[in-house]
Amino acid sequence: xxxxxxxxxxxxxxxxxxxxxxxxxxxxxxxxxxxxxxxxxxxxxxxxxxxxxxxxxxxxxxxxxxxxxxxxxxxxxxxxxxxxxxxxxxxxxxxxxxxxxxxxxxxxxxxxxxxxxxxxxxxxxxxxxxxxxxxxxxxxxxxxxxxxxxxxxxxxxxxxxxxxxxxxxxxxxxxxxxxxxxxxxxxxxxxxxxxxxxxxxxxxxxxxxxxxxxxxxxxxxxxxxxxxxxxxxxxxxxxxxxxxxxxxxxxxxxxxxxxxxxxxxxxxxxxxxxxxxxxxxxxxxxxxxxxxxxxxxxxxxxxxxxxxxxxxxxxxxxxxxxxxxxxxxxxxxxxxxxxxxxxxxxxxxxxxxxxxxxxxxxxxxxxxxxxxxxxxxxxxxxxxxxxxxxxxxxxxxxxxxxxxxxxxxxxxxxxxxxxxxxxxxxxxxxxxxxxxxxxxxxxxxxxxxxxxxxxxxxxxxxxxxxxxxxxxxxxxxxxxxxxxxxxxxxxxxxx
Amino acid sequence: xxxxxxxxxxxxxxxxxxxxxxxxxxxxxxxxxxxxxxxxxxxxxxxxxxxxxxxxxxxxxxxxxxxxxxxxxxxxxxxxxxxxxxxxxxxxxxxxxxxxxxxxxxxxxxxxxxxxxxxxxxxxxxxxxxxxxxxxxxxxxxxxxxxxxxxxxxxxxxxxxxxxxxxxxxxxxxxxxxxxxxxxxxxxxxxxxxxxxxxxxxxxxxxxxxxxxxxxxxxxxxxxxxxxxxxxxxxxxxxxxxxxxxxxxxxxxxxxxxxxxxxxxxxxxxxxxxxxxxxxxxxxxxxxxxxxxxxxxxxxxxxxxxxxxxxxxxxxxxxxxxxxxxxxxxxxxxxxxxxxxxxxxxxxxxxxxxxxxxxxxxxxxxxxxxxxxxxxxxxxxxxxxxxxxxxxxxxxxxxxxxxxxxxxxxxxxxxxxxxxxxxxxxxxxxxxxxxxxxxxxxxxxxxxxxxxxxxxxxxxxxxxxxxxxxxxxxxxxxxxxxxxxxxxxxxxxxx
Lengths: 495, 495
Description:
The structure is a homodimer. By secondary structure, chain A is α/β, with parallel strands linked by helices. Chain A has four domains: 2-88, Barwin-like endoglucanases, CATH 2.40.40; 94-154, Transferase, Pyrimidine Nucleoside Phosphorylase, Chain A, domain 3; 168-405, Nucleoside phosphorylase/phosphoribosyltransferase catalytic domain (Pyrimidine Nucleoside Phosphorylase, Chain A, domain 2, 3-Layer(aba) Sandwich); 417-494, Alpha-Beta Complex (Aldehyde Oxidoreductase, domain 3), CATH 3.90.1170. The first copy, chain A, is built from 18 helices and 19 strands. The radius of gyration of chain A is 25 Å and the shape is globular. Chain A starts with a strand and ends with a strand. Chain A binds chain B through residues 8-15, 19, 31-33, 54-58, 67, 69-70, 91, 95, 98-99, 102-104, 125-128, 130-131, 134-135, 137-138, 256, 259-262, and chain B through 8-15, 19, 31-33, 54-58, 67, 69-70, 91, 95, 98-99, 102-104, 125-128, 130-131, 134-135, 137-138, 255-256, 259-262. β5 (49-56) of chain A pairs antiparallel with β2 (10-11) of chain B.
């Protein structure tokens, strides 16, 4: 059925909305909240949008005219009074697969692929998606389901294909503040002829994601075409995953995981592996920090994840190596986008005051990747990585990557205002609570205030005197700093 | 924070929506899809509405002005440029309870009450509610949880309190077409001084609900105040439950159960018992039809439900009697609102062609209720019910109830067009598929076309000759009748 489109200047964030007159809604037997398919008949190649139905109370709108909210109007590339096709939407078949999963069944490759296709094409409602997450959370996803989910995410998203070269990648199971190894590993690896096309995330609940920190130094919203070229020329990049549609299904699913902070293990594994699979990585290094206040707090849990990563890797024909690292305290000094970028910059420049723990971790991980990619002989990777970093080759490569990605609009500096958190007693630092460290940086304004965050001055084992600074909190807003002082929970144990 | 309100003439069905300018949204750190609280500062007694955030693309709207969709604007009783208070909404505490339920924990009375309060006040999103349904579906609700859910639904909805009299009620676990005993039982019971304030549902997936059929004869959208008066004067009524806010929480939850057709047992039990508890019923008769094509197809399942009803009844201090009835074929002749009302009318009038199975079932059930309510001695209930019905007392009572509820706007007639479904062979009727019978009536247009549906002419055990009519299908639309012919699956087995 054809309607004349007009734009209603309202944005909803992620939903497409079409507003019918009461008579038209009655004629089509549509209720508010129903779903319909919309198509611009002039665009032959674009698949139809699924939109939610609202009903107009505005008498001035004539029957036969269909109001479309901004995103809907724009996505369909319509102009006022252009024709738009409306068709009724049947409930997708995949709803039955979701129900089966909720009831504890295992899904096969075809069913999973069909679900993810519907997810990406927005044919499933949030309620239906929620049941998928609930079923995956309670019953788990088997290794086969997880591998099939990985393939489905990749198949229904954007991929970057390289014809030449060995592609390696890394991933860190998060929770350690300041852990910005990626920005060091990529230039080291890319200097050797291996390819490391790295898409990273922005922060959701942490003070900074790799993409937030990289953004201080370079543009991170780069198209897939351009990223491909950069990887071909420079061997690697550090870009924001959300800037390309790799693992597009993830963004849809995360929306309904968020309210209960659910992170079904199989979905997490598939989401990580999909990003590697989509760029053709054959060798993947997984870093699992273990510590009391990070995502993985028990060695047993780490061992379990290691097994699953390796099994799923085999099913996907990828070499996956999993290492356990120290997750008991922050890495480097800075926490927050610009403060972390300062650390990275110091390590790349071999500055005298560069944080050695960050450098060391990046070299160890680079070493493994060089060995996995057959650029270094067994046990020679670390040495090779060190040589590349200390000779300035990594810095030169990093600068070329930055230039290729484009200039950043940010400065490399600390927040304008700061205060020191002082030791309440003399003694030795026994522990630092990572979650409290992250919270302080968040309250200071990170990652939205790029210059907010903190510098960790004392680490575990350091001797401190009463009233000696333990960390410095930075922000561009005085009010934010006051907020930190008012809400501060002391993150150090000293005895 | 105060805004100036203006109306955006769009209806969404069930969601409240507030549209901010981009600058205002930035200032309040709001994203599309976030939730806020809205309050009309002039209305002191009304609790705040929870609304979803959209963002305007309309440059002509000034900052400080807040667009509200029709339902939101009206519910807050605002006029253009009235002040409206906006406050940020923290995630409700009950989200943690929902997560616990999803993870298999049992919830206590306080937690359940808090959840239902948030449900009714619209403080939980559809996604959060969906997790509640998923958790209840997979892990089940214990008897204690179900009794507590019943109490919570009643506490957070409308109740009708009677100071005098014994209140009885009945409920049928559905699936049997034409099963309109309620409209006979209520006038029989109400003739004896017992009270039977009956709220019934409209059809969701069947050809007619009791409320749809009653609507042929009387108005069924009656306020709680008026219903109370009718029950005080006449002893009973048959009204639509959705017309009053008894079990208001149900309507919210059903929205997210619908997409996967989930009906978690504990939620179903609580929903049934809440409607009895809310009007103070002390004696409840539950009818469980058992047959291959109704909700309960196995005797074991019926026994299980019987146990649960009785246990939950005890926890709620109600006498609950459960009977198993024949669910193998339709009851009465008519299927569809008006066609069923014709059957009821014939039984009340003691017409010669009144369907005896409908009459018999209504008398048996009335008999039990009269005994439970101590109006009849043990085993004397059936006889008493029969006397009331056959003497015309029930008809007189029914007419008074109809008068009190108000006149119907419908006629009591069959659909304008009809056709007969003929026997394909001679023999004896072995079975009738209830689901296919319902489907035929639905395709004919029931319950939206009040006069559509069918009359069952032959029942199990009847001898038929080839080409003899088995049933007559009615509709007010010729096109609908053609639709039935095209899609018909033969519901009879004859041999």
